[in-house]
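Entry:
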Amino acid sequence: MPHFRVIALDQRGHGLSDKPGSYTFDEVTGDLTALIEALALEKPVVVGHSWGGNVALQFAADRPDETAAIVLSDGGFLEISAMDGMTWERAEVVMRPPEMDGTPLDAFITGARNWPDLAGLWSEQLQEMVLSNFEIRDSKVYRRLPVPDHMKIVRAIWEQRPSEMWDRVRCPVLMIPAINRQDDPQRDMWTRTKLQAIERAREMLPHAQIVVMEDTVHDIPLQRPAELAEAIIAFAGAL
């Protein structure tokens, strides 16, 4: 089995990284470039989940000579503005996270255990992983990324047009969509739009690889970490 050096980047506003207040794709791909230069990496494989997938796509499109390959884990290929009836005003409502700062820790854990996408996966390890995304102060939970900054990221994703970027991507691409088919009109809309976006990408990138994670929530690393790792290793190992 091939061996890789793996470096995990907490993007701005996430983890313990700085929170500068601006989240354009020029800036976040600039952060990635600074990391690559600081560590003297040569043409890395860039793997991104969710918003990270959009960052990986932008990086590959803007810096085709600096990218060995990209992996888009349920992110980067969905063009939200192309969804039926999805105006920015509607997206702003649908994609706004809940206000939760100051929630007592016990109440937060109880609620998280019952989130539809996590209820069947809950464990002590998952609880630790979920809580690591937040600040805990005086037994209360606070977002590391404030909602206004979160919405700046949402706006940047809204304005990004993956369908207009594929022809600038020169490196191999692996797309890993999470498909969770349920009798839910809104979830079905997201699934259909996701699959349509992948088909458009496939037309422009005929050699792109696609590994579909069926019956999987958006957070693939939480539900199927082994399968996700295997797909990435197989892809990167064949480069």
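The radius of gyration is 18 Å.
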